[in-house]
Write a structure and sequence with these properties.
The protein is of the alpha+beta class. The chain is 28% helix and 38% strand. The protein has a seven-stranded mixed beta sheet, sandwiched between helices. The longest helix has 15 residues.
């Protein structure tokens, strides 16, 4: 497996694989944030095919309840589902942690939905510890062209980079 920083040419390929359109592409939004210097968007590749992604948000968590000053790992996903629990997510997280170390940062954070015990267990195994509960609020443009708002109860966790 190879982990790379997302390139402009990767966005269309990611959209094709996930069935997104240019109007609904969260890949394009993440790539735009990367181009603005707000994040680094990492893609996991296996046999030339994208199998996972995550965004290292250098600007930290948007939720006002989260006052920890550290970058946030967000949008971690592995697909197709049968590839989960094979270390792809762990490798993406480790790659993000290494990016933070190279910037001289000493703490990294990650949010997890309270309805996602599988991800919470992974983060705990990797050394992340809970700091605060919060509500993650975001919007997305659905395939129907309508903007949808989501509010997810989450827990923010941090890990010292030693």
């Amino acid at each position: 497996m190879e982990i790379t920083v997302c390139r402009a040419a990767d966005v269309a390929a990611l959209d094709r694989f996930m069935g997104a359109t240019a109007a609904t592409s969260f890949h394009a939004r993440r790539f735009a944030r990367q181009e603005a210097g707000e994040c680094t968007y990492l893609i996991a590749w296996l046999d030339g095919r994208s199998v996972g992604h995550m965004e290292m948000r250098w600007v930290g968590c948007d939720a006002p309840e989260v006052t920890v000053d550290c970058p946030e790992i967000g949008g971690l996903g592995v697909w197709p589902e049968e590839l989960r629990s094979r270390g792809i997510g762990s490798q993406l997280i480790r790659a993000a942690e290494e990016l933070a170390r190279k910037r001289g940062l000493t703490v990294v954070g990650i949010g997890v939905g309270r309805d996602n015990p599988r991800a919470a267990a992974l983060y705990q195994r990797l050394g992340y510890r809970p700091v605060i509960d919060y509500l993650d609020r975001y919007t997305y443009l659905g395939a129907d062209g309508v903007e949808h708002e989501v509010v997810d109860p989450c827990t923010f966790l941090t890990k010292p980079l030693v």
